[in-house]
Design a protein that fits this description.
single chain, 393 residues, mainly alpha, disordered C terminus
């Protein structure tokens, strides 16, 4: 029985579940922690989130670390670093302290996310990879639910301080990562990966969609969450309740999205996602009701599972030897906007929070236009519909 479970798919599901435990604890407490303990303003939270995205911008460095370590081992070590960063967060309630602990956590988080994408694209078959990625997203949601229960229990029942909750949440990820290191063997890779930076012209549409996806993510992670606390006064418990609803729904929605991608194709799913985001971001800008804002927040989160379509689109067009190097480069491209937007939009927030979300709606509109260029049947030589001979595909 144990031998049958020691498979690459099972390992990826376990690792996919381990990182949301620490990150969900970090993220759930963050806005309340920085406001209550460090007196953050919108500009401060923007700076913190920009610093958090710097390792994502440098994710291309993963390819050089792979000269020393195999992808599977590096992925597990990245989880350990993530957990350590979260464990230390509560002990440094100042702008400088939070910048440093966030940077440590983020190095591990972004390296792991890069490697997870690379391993998934290599280990999952193209025909069913969307379904497996949906299962990974569901596993992450289940783990996040456990994290929210942990936050609620430790703070509301046990009455522990922020520092203890961060310590325990990060520690769980470290223990799971070390357990995975000990239990699972080293799995072979079907294709030797390039150990150099790769940026190919034929992947341009994927790069463009990836950059816009990074910009969209910041609107949700940084400013939608901050809106719930600053404007509508949500407590830690209420934020945790919102996250709980999000992930309960995602347990059902994420696997279904994977099936829909297999059935209808990437272009249609991405189109649905971006139309929805235009409406959601516009709703944030205009919302005056805490209940309406909460509904928008839940809908916004559900659209994240549709980003699986972007990964499966890339899996279909990429040279299999390019996967590891391209995963690092694409994460860097994803974070070009992510490094800049929190700071600039944090300053914009001070004068007009609504304009932050209207700008997000504009970015979703640009993404919608780009999504129309995804071919019905993407593959090598058929990466984008701009090519004249493939204009009808």
């Amino acid at each position: 029985m144990l031998q049958r479970l020691r498979r690459p798919e099972v390992l990826l599901l376990i690792l996919a579940a381990s990182i949301p435990i620490s990150f969900s604890v970090w993220n759930t407490l963050l806005n309340n922690f920085v406001i209550e303990k460090a007196a953050f303003t919108g500009a401060d939270i923007g700076l913190l989130q920009s610093v958090r995205e710097i390792p994502g911008f440098l994710a291309f460095l993963v390819v050089f670390v792979l000269l020393l370590l195999r992808e599977q081992r590096l992925a597990v070590l990245s989880l350990v670093v993530t957990g350590l960063g979260v464990m230390l967060t509560g002990f440094y309630p100042s702008l400088t302290g939070l910048l440093l602990t966030t940077l440590l956590m983020s190095v591990g988080f972004h390296f792991y996310e890069t490697l997870q994408t690379s391993l998934a694209l290599q280990w999952f078959p193209k025909q069913t990879s969307a379904i497996w990625m949906g299962r990974m997203a569901a596993a992450g949601s289940f783990a996040a639910l456990l994290a929210y229960a942990l936050v609620w229990g430790l703070m509301n029942v046990a009455g522990l301080d922020y520092s203890w909750v961060y310590l325990i949440g990060g520690g769980v990820t470290v223990v799971i990562a070390l357990g995975a290191w000990a239990v699972f063997p080293q799995f072979p890779q079907s294709h030797s990966q390039h150990k150099k930076l790769i940026l190919r012209k034929r992947y341009w549409l994927y790069y463009a969609l990836t950059m816009m996806s990074g910009a969209r993510r910041q609107i949700f992670i940084v400013f939608a969450s901050f809106l719930m606390v600053e404007k509508f006064g949500y407590s830690v418990g209420e934020i945790a309740a919102l996250y709980t609803v999000n992930h309960l729904l995602n347990l059902y929605v994420a696997p279904k999205v994977g099936q829909l991608i297999v059935r209808f194709g990437e272009r249609r799913i991405l189109t649905l996602e971006y139309i929805g985001l235009i409406l959601v971001f516009s709703g944030y800008a205009l919302a005056e009701s805490a209940a309406i804002a909460a509904a928008l927040y839940i809908i916004d989160h559900l659209f994240f599972s549709m980003a699986i379509a972007l990964k499966t689109y890339f899996q279909k067009i990429v040279d299999e030897r390019d996967i590891a190097a391209s995963a690092g480069v694409s994460f860097t491209i994803n974070h070009i906007a992510a490094v800049v937007i929190p700071v600039l939009f944090g300053l914009l927030w001070l004068s007009s929070p609504a304009m932050v979300f209207f700008a997000g709606a504009l970015m979703a509109l640009i993404s919608l236009g780009l999504a129309q260029l995804v071919p019905k049947r993407p593959g090598p030589g058929n990466e984008a519909r701009l090519t004249p001979r493939l204009a009808a595909t």
